[in-house]
Design brief:
Length: 269
């Protein structure tokens, strides 16, 4: 089990570097989710980079698969593969595809990117763990724009029916999607009340506050009898001033000058 601390500055810098090198990718949603992934992998997820298929491991499903740079950065810093491979993002033949691919890279639990499917995958894994009497916990990271998909709510009903308290959904609430702000495209509020009405234990937190994130994950493991939803309020493009809350950076790579500016802000700002 890994218990290291992950530097979110370095993780953010790696996200910018790899997307710039690829010339394409999704910086906004990767930067908004990175604090959540860093705390999860450093303090709560039971995993072993030396034995990626350890049967008793916890599982992380990145349902918002376009934020793969964030997951790749965390996996590299945890030791799943050499950090130098990050610069092969989206290159022909690279294991680091634009969306996670299960059989190409250690540490990836499911191929994702077709939005709305991750919670259903996690639901199946949580049911399997219960049948196997395994202690594994299942975590699913979804975007707030993504949960406009109807399949998410079908899975939410099933998770409550089967009382899957080994399943945690983390919603990256950055209020941004490719077409604009979530609050304008298809408003979700009152989101916490909706999940509670579906029978979920719900916690709303600041998704950039490590202490709040840590406490939410600890509480999710302690409570019983219900699936858990952590609604993390985040900022799209967090850490780079000219990207923050700008949906234009949902799926656009920075040029050379923008890359240098972003790295200065992240590492020295």
């Amino acid at each position: 089990m890994v218990t290291l601390q992950l530097s979110t500055k370095e993780l953010r810098a790696d996200i910018i570097r790899m997307i710039a090198a690829a010339g394409s990718g999704h910086p906004g949603g990767s930067l908004s989710a990175i604090d959540l992934l860093a705390v999860l992998y450093a303090r709560h997820l039971r995993h072993d980079p030396k034995t990626p298929d350890w049967p008793q491991r916890d599982r992380l499903i990145l349902s918002k698969g376009h934020a793969a740079p964030a997951l790749y950065a965390v996996l590299a810093h945890c030791g799943y593969f050499p950090r130098e491979l990050l610069l092969t993002l989206r290159k022909l033949g690279s294991a680091l595809q634009g969306h996670p691919e299960r059989h190409r890279l250690p540490g990836i639990e499911a191929a994702t990117g077709s939005l709305g499917q991750g919670l259903s995958i996690g639901l199946g894994m949580a049911l399997a763990a219960r049948l196997d009497r395994a202690e594994s916990r299942i975590y699913v990271v979804a975007g707030d724009g993504e949960i406009q998909e109807g399949q998410v709510w079908e899975a939410a009903m099933a998770a409550s029916k089967f009382k899957l308290d080994n399943l945690t959904l983390i919603v990256d609430c950055n209020n941004g999607q490719i077409d604009g702000h979530v609050s304008e495209i298809m408003p979700l509020d009152p989101l916490a009340d909706k999940f509670r009405s579906f029978g979920w234990d719900v916690r709303a937190i600041d998704g950039h506050d490590p202490a709040a994130i840590d406490a939410a994950f600890a509480a999710a493991k302690a409570a019983g009898g219900q699936p858990r939803a952590i609604l993390a309020k985040t900022v799209k493009g967090k850490g780079v001033s000219f990207m923050e809350d700008d949906v234009a950076w949902h799926g656009k790579a920075p040029n050379k000058e923008e890359t240098e500016m972003a790295l200065r802000e992240i590492l020295h700002g």
